[in-house]
Design brief:
Mean pLDDT: 94
Largest sheet: 5 strands, mixed
Structural class: alpha/beta
Strand content: 15-25%
Distance between the termini: 46 Å
Low-confidence stretches: none
Helix content: 40-55%
Order of helices and strands: HEEEHHEHEHEEEHHHHEHEHH
Shape: globular
CATH class of the largest domain: Alpha Beta
CATH superfamily of the largest domain: ATPase, nucleotide binding domain
Number of domains: 2
Number of helices: 12
Oligomer: single chain
Strand order of the largest sheet: 3-2-1-4-5
Radius of gyration: 21 Å
Length: about 350
Amino acid sequence: MPYICEIRKKLNEIKEKDEVIILAIETSCDETSAAVVKNGRAVLSNIIASQIELHRHYGGVVPEIASRKHVEAVNPVIDEAMREAGIGFDRLDGIGVTYGPGLVGALLVGLSTAKALAYALSLPLVGVDHIEGHISANYISHPNLEPPFLCLVVSGGHTHLVWVKDYGDYEVVGMTRDDAAGEAFDKVARVLGLAYPGGPSIDLISKKGNAQAIQFPRAYIDEDHFDFSFSGLKTAVINYLHNLKQRNETYKIEDVAASFQQAVVDVLVDKTIKAAEKTGLSRIAVAGGVAANSALRQCMTIRTREHGFELFYPQLVYCTDNAAMIGCAAYYKLIHGKIDDLFLNVEPSFSKIVADRRQY
């Protein structure tokens, strides 16, 4: 009861404050991150402890190893975030944390830490959907960006077209029916013998290749819908390489990578443009790890300019998993009184945003 009374008091105080400061925690996959964010858009610190080098040895993220590393890193990362922000815990107004989707063990580390801090400091706890976090990364990089807009969220685990109607109000108009785009990048990179993570490796080597060398398929599923499918494309690349090997023929990795990447980008951009036209939205944002892909940025820039759309995408540091984007999303939930109790649990396979989907 004392905790509940303190939280109610805090919420009333927050409504009157000019500056609302949130400590955010992100541990959904293989980055341990903590950030201090003021008023949702001013990042006072954003510390990221990456596990990429550790998991690169295995060609992908090993969930148990990721969880153990989060346990080791989470407290030092939080301490560093607070030091860099130059504030004490007494200045905080809330604790934001990713509760899903993601790896269950990894999520539990962040959520357990956030609950402990919220209880010990008598602060509101704000659970944030990871996809909502990626969308919110654009608010940090573009302080003048306001809803409504269409957002392409594309990463290793997610590929969604989201109609951002307002802060916290979303409607999914399209999503992948199988592999996420980033997942396809990782799998094709592994077949080509490129280093994990596959997205950056393919993007780098593609700069030396011919994107028109091989005509890999583009899966549009249904011209009247905005869903994606990348499983068939991935299989087409594997079969292409297998057939060449059987015939003892050589190939240029650069051309295969570039042609595959272009096939992914073409579908992502085409579907996004059509969805914007269908919904009548004039602003398009891109978010998630694959938003850092240079070919996607270039193609999306050209196509949106041709159609008269405004285009937004985050700075590179906010494309991959980070706590600053979680702090941004948590701020808008907090100021509207949307907080969670200490019984909040992780949702490794569920996204509230995806649940709010409309079929087009």
